[in-house]
Amino acid sequence: MGGFVSRASRPARYTLVFHAEPRFVDTVKQAVFAAGAGRYPNYSECCWTATGTGQFRPVGAANPHTGEVGVLEKIEELRVEMLCDSEETARKAVEALKKAHPYEEPSYAVYKLEDF
């Protein structure tokens, strides 16, 4: 049974997902990778990217990076997903994302993964 690691002894893993305009994605990815996200045992800077349409309407005291207050915006954005090998990595990656992302309120989610 050499190399066997019980599920109970493995740290929880997470998936970080964020959205950004194509021109900002590389900058945000590099910051999140530098925080430790996107790593597998023999690989680094791993992610999955898909194109979609983001929609939002800035309201109230919003200070949007893109668009105008009160105007519905629909823009091309990329969805980027990457593995975080621990809760600590996920927290550091989110902190780096918030610093590097140009949006006032970056769109992101963190999902805890199950190990089957």
UniProtKB/TrEMBL annotation:
<dbReference type="InterPro" id="IPR015867">
    <property type="entry name" value="N-reg_PII/ATP_PRibTrfase_C"/>
</dbReference>
<protein>
    <recommendedName>
        <fullName>ATP phosphoribosyltransferase</fullName>
    </recommendedName>
</protein>
<dbReference type="InterPro" id="IPR036069">
    <property type="entry name" value="DUF34/NIF3_sf"/>
</dbReference>
